[in-house]
Amino acid sequence: MSWQDRLPVLVGVGQITQREPDPRAAMGPLDLMAAAAKAAAEDSGAGPALLAALDQLTVIRLFADTSPRFVSPFGKQTNPPVSVARRLGADHVRQHVYTWPGGNMPQYCLNRLGEAITRGEVEAAMVVGAEALSTQKAAQRQGVALDWAEDLGGTHHTWGVSRRGWSDLEDRHGARAAITMYPMFEHAIRGRLGRSVADHQAAIGTLLARFAAVAAANPLADRRAGYGAAQISTPAADNKFIAHPYTRLMSANAFIDQGAAVAMTSVAKARSLGIPPDKWVYLHGCADGHDHWHVTERRDLHSSPAMQQVFAQAFDMAGCTLADIGVLDIYSCFASAVEVACDALGLAQDDPRGLTVTGGLPYFGGPGNNYVTHSIAEMVQRVRARPGVKGLVTANGNYLTKHSAGIYSTEPPARPFAPADPALLQARLDAIPRPPLVELADGAATVESYTVSHDGQGPVNAVVIGRLGDGSRFIANTPADAALWQAMQTEDFLGRRGQVANDGRINRFTPA
């Protein structure tokens, strides 16, 4: 078989957004996955024949199996890929995969599947995921008992990294969630740009309003109101701060019902299934890598060396540059993720090509670990509509930690599918120096970044990452002082001097 016949090609995509108000009538996550997978098969033109031909099925990890916050009270699905395969009649699947968490995982899995198809180990594969957290939440509020439990037995493989995203030290200081980490990146970005708190808040609103406008035109999007910049950036009764500087409308919304699937085959298999070439989309370039695992280990809090090198490697494989890209979807869980990616790409935030094809996680929806399956599905539709145009999808997991990228086009690649060994890139990334980290800090200190966390009533905690006089880094909380927390949201605390002390477990920073 020629290398051209072994090229991996995306042949079908499907997306579902469920808006069923009655939890009893709504599909659960496994049924949403099956619906998206069937839609992808229909999109290919091969329909049930594609499903019957699948020899690999990957399910993106449910949020219920990712975070205690999202655990379902309606029963556990013990083997999602086997359950989905059963619903599809995909009886020839030889490898069932259930991933570890991460927003990077859909693109990561397609990168791995492309390699497996090229080696002849897989002929037809599907990546699928879904969340039904809106239905889950509605059922809990209404006191409706659902039965989502399913145990079909069997085994599955796991792909990705099982390691949690935060350290014990970060955890002790209340820094284990995305809504704590990304606001600290945001303030660090503000400092690098030299902006005031108010000016940067307005700039975030301007950036995200462009995403909201795309979502307003997308019938699959969750928030379609087309929020303006001031609406997004201004705290209000219906747009409260979650963690400064982020308001509710700046944050990814996980409580939605969405599913998406992408089918990938070899060119030879696509041809044998009768899938027309105008459905084929090639993965021209891809790469994966991660930054230092814990945020407190990073060289700074406003950039991502891994993003820079992952993007560069994907472009090198595709034999193109950013100037050759016609369509983009930049991972957008929070504004800081977009800003860091734009910086890594050398891409203006107001680039006329736009930064999203879906509307982004705050407005299209943040369906757990599966958003990027949606962005890839939408990208496939966009590049099919513009033959020869290249599209870039970026993906991010944890806290600007894990990164994947894919470059797509209907035009066949000029060379075999051969990504560089990810281990070589990772070795370079692992060698980047880390600042010394002090677990129990004492002495004069300076704020490197910070955030103030809120509940529904107002501020409840503040986290500071700072430097001691010798340049070593620490993480701390502040005293529980409402006036201080208010000041931290109106004044610029970057570079603020003070004293840090510890009680043998927790560091406490008190500004001068």
TrEMBL record:
Domain Thiolase C-terminal: 288-354
InterPro entries noted in UniProt: Thiolase-like, Thiolase_C_2, TLP1_add_C
GO MF, one example: acyltransferase activity
Gene3D superfamilies in UniProt: 2.40.50.840, 3.40.47.10
Entry annotated with the keyword ATP-binding: no
Domain Thiolase-like protein type 1 additional C-terminal: 425-504
Keywords, comma-separated and alphabetical: Transferase
Pfam families per UniProt: Thiolase_C_1 (PF22691), TLP1_add_C (PF18313)
Top-level taxon in the UniProt lineage: Bacteria
Name of the protein in its database record: Acetyl-CoA acetyltransferase
